[in-house]
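Workshop exercise sheet. Pairs work together: one partner reads the sequence aloud, the other fills in the structure field after running the prediction. Swap roles for the next sheet.
Pair: D.N. / O.F.
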Amino acid sequence: MEFFLSNHQFESQTSNIPIFRTKLISLGDEGVGKTSLLENLFPIGLHYSNNSLLFNGQKQISWFQLQDNKLIQYSDPQLKMRVRELDLLSPGTQIGFINKEGTYQIQINPGIFKKSLSLIFNNKSDGKSWKHRLLQIIKKEEVDQKFDFNLYQVNYPIITEDYGEVPLQLMIWDFKCQKSYETPNFYFSPSVRTVLLITWKMIAEDKGIENLEFWLHSLLSHFKNENERPNEKKMFSIYIVGTHLDELTRDDDFLHYKINRINRLQQVTHRLQFSLPFEYFEVNSLEGEGIEELRESIIKNVMEHGYMKNQLPPSYLMIQSLILKLQEGEHSQPFMEFEQFKKEIRQFSGVHIEEETIKEALDLFHSWNLCIYFRYSPISDKIIFHPQQFFSLYISKLYQFKNEKFFENGKTDLNSLEQIWTKSIWFDAAIDFLESTHFCFRTFEEDGLKIIFPSKLPLTNPEIVWDEKHHLEFIRILQFNFLPKEFFSQLLVSLHFSFFENQIWRTGIFATTPDFQLLIESHLDQNRIAITFRGLTADLGKEKIEVVINKIESFQELYPGIIISQLTPCFKHESQDSQDLIEILDCLKDFDNDINHRKLICSQQEPIDSKQILLKAGFIGKFERFGFFFFFFFFLCF
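Structure field:
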């Protein structure tokens, strides 16, 4: 008869254990040196003495680092005493992987006249990370990196006052070519519990500054300024890192040019109103210059984060161990039914853990990027226990050049998708996950079911044809402090379900029915979304505009740094040839004044007719005092 501890018995018999863990995300354009920087900062693999190296039949301790296609061996954990390096792409080099009970071994046989290596990992997770990286290096076929990333964990040893030497668990995300695609916001977006490295190539000069400005601007949509919460501990750190320091000329003007770079950076942050705290470093990844100082700063700041040393219940740690064990195993798919996962926990731990406790733990581990789980959604009956495998099998393949033939104007069908993904019992689950997170959506057309991926939609606008019978027009404009392109992609997916019979492209959607037409367009260069309604009745116009506004508000919760104001055109007299934009809230405030005492003016220095402006924006009714204060109160809340 099997005996299982109850959740209560298990928790009462075991003390909580502090966790030192954070997420490290590297952002920047292709070729700026993100991967080299990460490999120098926190090399994957052999940090502890229980990870050993067989060399000439004798066991010894070594530390290793991967740089491009080179494997570099060191005799010290600080990676200063270089022993030798191996070119993994040299003729005759062979690499084998052996997964034994309790260990993970990588056998490297270099070309002729070089000695072979056997790397033995007691930590299988480290061994798996090395295997993934080595396979990427030695692949002979052309790899499409339009959507590619490395996800791996490094356990970096640190000394703490209370606990002695402990592993700082770093979940590292190394993205490739991010500006060329839109990532799923639900998982890749920066969040708290994060260290962000924003890299820029200093020798690129103006182009480098331009690319850096893009990434800084992007961060503004995801983070609120911590200075607004002075009593709370910081939850993230931002670093701006200049790379390729070795390619800059070292002469008498070197310090002068560095000051100029810092001044330009200050000008950029001032222009963007980038008030988030950050630190600036310049590094030479090739020779390690500036790396140690940057590493020490990261560790110091991370240890001051508010979540560091959080204690997890033993049940959480048991669930974490199971997820890691599942990731180490050989699984063809990264999915598991929640009910099956509960059984796995019971078999793995001998403990009965309450369902709510499991869901709470999965919630936390989702924020750690250890798994993917949406507790309050229709897909809460499934989990993805291996995120990287999921993205490799289902997202990366969508962006491979060889699969472009399966898409037409951003659309594909189930048969084509089966060829891209390979049919499995989890095929529908993969679509469900991506659709629930607004990465794609299903739509029924005359020739059958289609799946639309907004990031693959055409950039060119279709011809917009307005129906003359739709004589009533309302215009509303949403002004963002920053409008991320993935924000609008998510909005397109959501709006598609609200307005059928529509034309859709990368930057807009045009819905047409017998009763109304609705055009929604994004203007990324102006950080605006414009809504134009034309129809037969004012009530219908108000209703449709509110649908769009409500959708935008719901997505705003995912971007805590975004601020939105509502505007409407202020037309000059009867002519609409030129127009100003005016905030609706200001117009509402001004509406109660006599026309001769109104302060709002157009560019012609003439008072505006607030009533007409509000009507034009879709505010209908007689504008009696009661109604006005209703709208005024609503927008103050907004």
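Discussion prompt: The radius of gyration is 28 Å. What would you look at next?
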